[in-house]
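Repro case for the chain-ordering regression, as requested:
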Amino acid sequence: MVELQDTHKKFQKELSSGTVSLALLSILAQSQEPLYGYQIGKLVGAGDDDGVMVKQGAIYPVLRSLESQGLLSSEREMSDSGPPRKYYQATETGQEALKDWTAIWIETKNFVDNVLGGDYQ
Amino acid sequence: MKTADELIKTYLSDLKNALKGADRATVQDALADAEEHLRTALESESAEVEAESEAIQTIIKEYGEVEEIAQAYKNWEVTLPPALAATPAARRVASASHGKTYPGFFGVFADPRAWGGLVYMLISIITGTLYFSWAVTGLSTSIGVMILIIGIPITIVFLLSFRGIAFLEGRLVEALLGERMPRRASFTDSSLPWKERLKILLTGKATWLSIIYMILMLPLGVIYFSVMVTLIAVSISFIATPVGAIVMMAKDIPFEIFRSGDIVWTVSDPAGLTLTLLIAGLGFLIGTCTMHIARWVGKVHGKFAKALLVSD
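-- result from build under test --
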């Protein structure tokens, strides 16, 4: 049973590495205003514990990675209470990339659905 | 029952342990991200102090287990090489993606780190002078006005500026020398009273190491700049010898490349021509060595900057 748990985790991790980038980019591209890490984490992590694809702490390296690719821009702002916050926003390039990524996602999703449904002959 | 603050500190030290072996700059980034998130979450989730230690447990659980988060940062480090690829893992990624490296003695001209080192050494006379002046001004002003009430905010401003400059210098070092440095400034807890924060600033190793670095940058900058300018000037003038000879010949000015007693060689003699070409070749050799020196100094300086500017 333990081994099954491990493969389950490993599969989920492999699967999430690309989809989390897509989800974060999409959240920030749709948002009317810049969001900071904690807000994004709340949006991603909504739902009960089992349904969570990514831990809130794991989104920060992804955000940094997207920023270094020029898909996101960020700005540091002081808050009235608590530490200063880093606000993220999708760039023009990010908006463009999201269109391509969405197309890739739909293609992938259809492919997997077909295989799982047995239509892929 | 531990307080929320203690729980956050425990989590951070666990995370630091889990990140053992990762680049120090990555560790600093990961800890800063975590602390910012946990404190922001705590601020927004619980209004009462009594409920804090309950709330923080849920927040930490949602943030993720230490091992998992540490792994996420390690993965990020591999996929995101610093600009000029300094860590071994990143170098593997970089060389795999470019398909070839430039080996050999003269390949140094194609190495971005050699050019980065060269630029860094040339501008270090400016940055070094600025850092030194600012550090010395800051220290002496702060000590001078320490006995007055007004001295405290002045001291705080200078100490904060040293941290800021250390961060900026880190960015410069990563961009030009390829040594991975922190991508964000280290976290300061703004909820602490100013007396506590001043204490952290004053007693923190990071502040004093930054000041030492800033002071040392003046002599280093002067040495780097003088050595580089000398080598470049010698190299270029040697390489330009044949050109000079041709121009002089065209103007009918005798250009003696060698004179000893009765022996005089001009460029029109075979011996003189050979000597001229040899000097040009030597110039090129010196230029290549200069690039190797720049790359080597850049690498060593990167390590030096990391030792002083990145806190454990």
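Ordering looks correct now. The first helix of chain B runs from residue 4 to 18.
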